[in-house]
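tool_call predict_complex ligand=glutamine
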Amino acid sequence: MRDEPVIGVLALQGDVREHVAALTAGGARAVTVRREGELDAVDGLVLPGGESTTIDRLLRAFELHGPLRERIAQGLPVYGSCAGMILLADRVLDGAADQRTLGGLDVTVRRNAFGRQVQSWEEDLPVEGVTGDGGPVRAVFIRAPWVEEAGEGVRVLARVGSGPAAGRIVAVRSGDLLATSFHPEITGDDRVHRYFVELVRDRLRGRGHEERRGLGSAGSPRGS
Ligand code: GLN
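tool_result ok
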């Protein structure tokens, strides 16, 4: 087995360089993805934040919407941050009229949920399976969505701890799909990316089905 998973970063909009750097620090070979052929070559994919309506339009323009939707449905591990979370969601509230998502994640997200007055929010958050002994993750929310409703098979990894959005779900995992409302790539803390790299590695080892067999049975999702 290759021990260095190849992880793509969708390079249509957003913090592409920062995600590439964090994935590389986390032990992956990170590559940018703009075409279907590049998509075929990756073991996992990061969907950066940005503007989900714009990324949706660009995905169609680059003829990536269909192929990517299909790969996700077939089990491609994907990590979506902020707008990336919206793209993974099966259902969107406050979306644009013609907004489509790639889907796969059984959640309802609310776009720009933190509201007009609180467009941005920062908080140190414990994230299940990610923080370990290293202390909470600095979560930076920028016109971020939250998860309004999560389906049964979705594991909640973090909720907002204080302020107007206290209790709202902001990190989830379902099978090999991971999503956060916040942007870990801009803080220099690569633990969320490491978590995703491990997830992809587990998947390559054929051990990526812990989540489906029963939540919590594995203790730390980072495994042994
Ligand atoms: N508000 C953006 C959207 O709807 C997401 C913001 C972000 O990714 N930082 O897509």
